[in-house]
Design brief:
Blueprint (H helix, E strand, L loop, with lengths): L25 E10 L2 E5 L6 E8 L15 E10 L2 E7 L16 E3 L3 E4 L4 H6 L5 H7 L4 E5 L4 E6 L2 H16 L4 H15 L1
Parallel strand pairs: 3-5
Antiparallel strand pairs: 1-2, 1-4, 2-3, 4-5, 4-6, 7-9, 8-9
Helix pairs in contact: 2-4, 3-4
Length: 195
C-alpha cells in the first residue's frame, strides 16, 4: 500500500535558509529596484537576480510589463553562477500566452499574499504531484497557489481571510511533525474558522 505524499515522509535534506539558484528552477521573486531595462529581484539568494523587461512572453521594447518595486513575479532561473548575478525569465517552452492575457502562469502574480518558509527544503514538499496538504485544502477552499524552489509561496483566494488561513494551514503542516491524521485535523480546524 502506497501512502499519499506527505511533507514529513520525504528524504532527509539539509535545511538552509538561503536559496542557491539552479538553472530551470521556478522561483517567486519580489521586485526590489528598476534600473533602465532591467529589474533587480529578491529571490532569497545571496545576491539579487536580474530580470530583463523584455524577458516576458511576446514582450518587446515598446510592449512590455511595467513592474514596480514590491511587485511579485513567478519566473524561471535562466542562468546561475556563484560569482555572477542570477538571470530570470518569465517565458516557458510549453506555454505561449501573451504576458498581457493573464493566462500564462509566469510573470507578475497579482493580488494574493507571499509567505517565506523558514527552510528552503519545505518548498520541495509542496512541489510534489500529490501534496496531501494542498489536496485537502483544495477540497474546501478555492485558491491559486504558486510555489517557488526558493522557499517562497504565493496564495490568492476570493477573500483575504481565506488567504491567511490557507497560508497558516500550509505553514503549520510543514513546520510541525504531524501525522496524516493530525494534518487532517489541523486542516479541519482551519476550515471551521472560515465559516
Amino acid at each position: 500500500m502506497e501512502l499519499p505524499f506527505h511533507p514529513r515522509r520525504t528524504a532527509l535534506q539539509a535545511y538552509r535558509r538561503k536559496y542557491i539558484p539552479k538553472p530551470d528552477d521556478l522561483v517567486i521573486g519580489i521586485i526590489k529596484q528598476k534600473t533602465g531595462e532591467q529589474y533587480k529581484v529578491d529571490i532569497r539568494a545571496p545576491f539579487e537576480a536580474t530580470l530583463d523587461s523584455t524577458a516576458f512572453e511576446r514582450a518587446t521594447k515598446r510592449h512590455k510589463p511595467n513592474l514596480q518595486v514590491g511587485h511579485v513575479v513567478y519566473a524561471f532561473v535562466q542562468s546561475a553562477h556563484k560569482d555572477y548575478e542570477t538571470t530570470l525569465v518569465c517565458t516557458s517552452v510549453d506555454v505561449h500566452k501573451d504576458w498581457t492575457s493573464g493566462e500564462g502562469y509566469l510573470g507578475q502574480l497579482q493580488g494574493g499574499y507571499c509567505l517565506d518558509l523558514d527552510f528552503i527544503a519545505h518548498a520541495d514538499c509542496l512541489l510534489g504531484d500529490e501534496c496531501f496538504v494542498l489536496e485537502q485544502l483544495g477540497a474546501v477552499v478555492k485558491y491559486e497557489v504558486a510555489v517557488g524552489r526558493n522557499g517562497r509561496i504565493w496564495v490568492k483566494t476570493e477573500r483575504p481571510k481565506e488567504t491567511l488561513l490557507v497560508l497558516s494551514a500550509i505553514k503549520t503542516a510543514l513546520t510541525k511533525a504531524l501525522t496524516l491524521e493530525q494534518t487532517q485535523a489541523a486542516i479541519n480546524i482551519f476550515v471551521e474558522r472560515l465559516t
